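Contributing new records

If you add data, match the layout below exactly. Sequence lines come first and carry their own label; structure lines follow with theirs. Keep one chain per record. Anything else will be rejected by the validation script.
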Amino acid sequence: MANLRNFIWSGTYDGMPVDIYLNRTPQIGSGVVEVAQPLRLAIRGEVELLGTHKGAVEIQMPDESASGSCTVVLNGAAYGNCPYRTDGIYLKIQAAGRELTLGAADKQWTWIGVSGVAGWVGLWPASEVMAEDEAERELAALPA
């Protein structure tokens, strides 16, 4: 089922501040999960990666079907009829010429993968202490 809560850390809540990482390290910014609901997820943040970048992504699902079409808003630009499918612990969405992958079966991490980008963007709750070895663990490759 494409309940968005299945693809983010289970403790995520509306308004939750997050630290943003490239893979598990380094921390590249911070943000907030504005909305974390079964049919709507909205995240905004600011990262330092080859300059400062602000960004926002919102996913709006029509229902909890395992596949179908949804709406994605990237930095204010809306993309309707974006095909999506669930793939085990991942939700994969085609939007703006890219595939977005969302997954959360890894402690307090919520992972966002973007096709064409080497690595994952990791969201970690800003209020949670990270074990010293957490950032050093290997991150699995992007799903095929």
